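Note to self: the last two entries modelled the partners one at a time, which told us nothing about the interface. This time every component goes in together.
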Amino acid sequence: KQEVTQIPAALSVPEGENLVLNCSFTDSAIYNLQWFRQDPGKGLTSLLLIQSSQREQTSGRLNASLDKSSGRSTLYIAASQPGDSATYLCAVIGSARQLTFGSGTQLTVLP
Amino acid sequence: DAGVIQSPRHEVTEMGQEVTLRCKPISGHDYLFWYRQTMMRGLELLIYFNNNVPIDDSGMPEDRFSAKMPNASFSTLKIQPSEPRDSAVYFCASSLGRGEGNEQFFGPGTRLTVL
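The predicted structure of the combined assembly is written out below.
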């Protein structure tokens, strides 16, 4: 059974810092990996989707990498802003198209 | 496109009552997923459909839960009878299954409180 772990569970940084969120998964036979953002009391917003054949994806200040062989992904956020404060969730998609989620990293960017 | 639409956004009911949650997927998407989010268990897949057919309902907690997808633009998740432990946020998501994309798009969720 696929298990997804995210470290750290919570992170607090001053504005302007670059930061890395980590995600690991136990079964490397994944189809894709998706990073989401969730604001308090809100739904999930898709940030980046990395296909299994790719090693990274970039969108603005966000960069996500994928290393299938080691079962790891990282989300890099450059020049963090208070508006980046949210919970970031990593999810892997197996061949059955089911998303298995990590428990998330709660990010607080202090002004 | 309006994205995935869910209703109601909030539902408060008493134990034993029937609850029906509704979802309209993104037009053209052929996969629809129902998830539940709680503090204790995080996000869990309950059931998913492909072309209106239920494919995997192994995540449905018990027989009190049922889901239907009568057509490509509508799905319901029903709880009967509801219990306090069913209190959670229920999300619907959809995706386009063809190709390598498979990116899932989530609705805003329904926050259910069972008293």
